[in-house]
Amino acid sequence: MNKFVYSVLALIVGGIVYRYRYPIINAILRVRPLQKWLVRSAMNVPSVRNTIISQVFR
After folding, report:
1. What DSSP line would sit under 3-42, residue for residue?
2. Burial 10-29 (b: 16+ CB within 10 A, else e)
3. Could you tell me the residue ranges of all domains in the chain?
4. How many angstroms separate the Cα of 10 from the Cα of each of 1, 5, 17, 18, 29?
5. 10 Å Cβ neighbour count for 52?
6. What is the pLDDT of residues 21-45, one digit of tens each?
7. C-alpha span between 54 and 50 (Å, rounded)
């Protein structure tokens, strides 16, 4: 019974997060240290870094 309740709860929370994903992302990116950390993390991924660098120096 507990697994069923947790599964339903996870689906509901997932649906809410999916529906309001852009306001949630904007709220997270307003926090300056998180913003810096996310940019640094993204720039450590080679495909992301190459795409951004190629767009900047076009």
Report:
1. HHHHHHHHHHHHHHHHHTHHHHHHHHHTSHHHHHHHHHHH
2. eeeeeeeeeeeeeeeeeeee
3. 2-56
4. 14, 9, 10, 12, 24
5. 14
6. 999 999 989 999 999 999 899 999 9
7. 6
